[in-house]
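Milestone 3.1: sequence recovery, worked example.
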């Protein structure tokens, strides 16, 4: 039957190895049902720049010429945004399967941009892609009152283990959202703790950038840390960490109940609403993170939190929910900014900011630590966006309850 892969012709061991690896991916056998419709390549935000966008990559695999992909570096334009997977009529897991496997082979061939190489080396050496000292991972909590419980120090069970993540722990802009979430959890009287220096990168973005071995190493370290303590569930700041803990860690025997913080707070909205007394008069639009939305179908909870804030009017950008644009940070994109700029001379974050401006938003709300710095940088590049404020949902909630929290 035309359009159905019945046999993959391969003259090289590489082609056979790639195809065998894809078969091991969940639903990977669906690759055989590729219709070559090209929808995946059409929706890819940087597909127009890639010599081998998803559909052409499938074609190369079908033709037994997958090794030709190793001669080009444009696969690194893929930001693992799940758009191709979302629209595929055959439901082929293109993002976690084909695109990630292509990056693995590029890494093995040494075809990797220096920016990404540095982030991967930092992740291996320091447990985070920023190259920061593990001993400083909880420094952002200094001076907070009441103090944040660090599990190794308090040596007691907690109800909630908060997996803070790399950027919320180290990046100055994102730390403000971490502090805001602490204030919210304290106001709700949530008994929580963090791992602090024992926490490693969740490594989901490193995995999607082709470093499966590094992912497994860091996941196992996190798993050993989890096993030392008693808690009822894990919450995460980062949708990428949420995706890893929910969908990837269980494959390594590391299996705990996990929710993104917006899910956790939305469940407690009845208790949270009495604290939200400070009116924020503004039009707000929400950017759906790829790994909260398309990858895990979490769309409603962030909007429920925003709609509960007095004075905020929620408006939707032209691309939202399953159709949301990517900020450009996933799949290694956080560490490929220079490389991608040289190829595209535009950033996905700038496209997104233009959409926020187009709907008259005063605030662009986010729920992923990659997004605040990326979108704030983008507002500096878009003339009409100079007045657009970028805020994490946790920051907006804390502002709405500021007087209550500080009392």
């Amino acid at each position: 039957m035309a359009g159905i892969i019945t046999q993959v012709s391969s003259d090289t061991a590489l082609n056979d190895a790639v195809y065998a690896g894809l078969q091991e991916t969940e639903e990977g056998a669906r690759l055989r049902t590729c219709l070559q419709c090209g929808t995946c390549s059409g929706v890819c935000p940087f597909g127009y720049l890639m010599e081998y966008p998803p559909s052409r990559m499938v074609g190369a695999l079908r033709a037994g010429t997958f090794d030709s992909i190793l001669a080009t570096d444009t696969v690194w334009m893929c930001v693992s945004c799940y758009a191709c997977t979302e629209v595929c009529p055959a439901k082929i897991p293109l993002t976690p399967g084909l695109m990630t496997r292509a990056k693995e082979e590029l890494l093995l061939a040494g075809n990797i941009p220096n920016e990404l190489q540095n982030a991967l080396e930092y992740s291996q050496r320091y447990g985070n892609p920023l190259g920061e000292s593990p001993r400083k991972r909880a420094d952002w909590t200094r001076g907070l009152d009441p103090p944040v419980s660090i599990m190794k120090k308090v040596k007691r069970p907690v109800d909630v283990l908060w997996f803070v993540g790399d950027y919320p722990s180290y990046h100055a802009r994102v730390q403000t959202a971490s502090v805001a979430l602490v204030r919210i959890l304290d106001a709700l009287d949530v008994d929580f703790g963090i791992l602090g220096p024992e926490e490693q990168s969740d490594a989901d973005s490193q995995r999607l950038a082709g470093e499966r071995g590094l992912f497994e190493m860091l996941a196992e370290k996190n798993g050993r840390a989890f096993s030392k303590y008693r808690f009822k569930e894990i919450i995460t700041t980062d949708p990428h960490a949420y995706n890893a803990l929910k969908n990837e860690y269980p494959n390594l025997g590391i299996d705990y109940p996990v929710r993104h913080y917006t899910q956790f707070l939305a469940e407690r909205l009845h208790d949270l609403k009495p604290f939200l007394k400070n009116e924020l008069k503004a039009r707000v639009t929400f950017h759906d993170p790829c790994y909260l939305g398309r990858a895990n179908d979490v769309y409603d909870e962030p909007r429920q939190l925003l709609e509960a804030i007095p004075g905020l009017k929620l408006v939707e950008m032209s691309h939202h929910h399953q159709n949301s644009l990517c900020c450009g940070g996933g799949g290694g994109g956080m560490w490929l900014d220079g490389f991608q700029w040289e190829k595209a001379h535009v950033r996905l974050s700038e496209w997104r900011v233009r959409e926020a401006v187009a709907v008259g938003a005063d605030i662009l709300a986010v729920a992923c630590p990659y997004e605040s710095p990326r979108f704030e940088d983008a507002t500096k590049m878009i003339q009409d966006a100079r007045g657009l404020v970028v805020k994490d949902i946790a920051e907006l909630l804390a502002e709405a309850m500021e007087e209550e929290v500080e009392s």
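Strands lie at 160-163, 192-194, 233-236, 258-260, 282-286, 312-315, 363-366, 389-392. The chain is about 45% helix and 10% strand.
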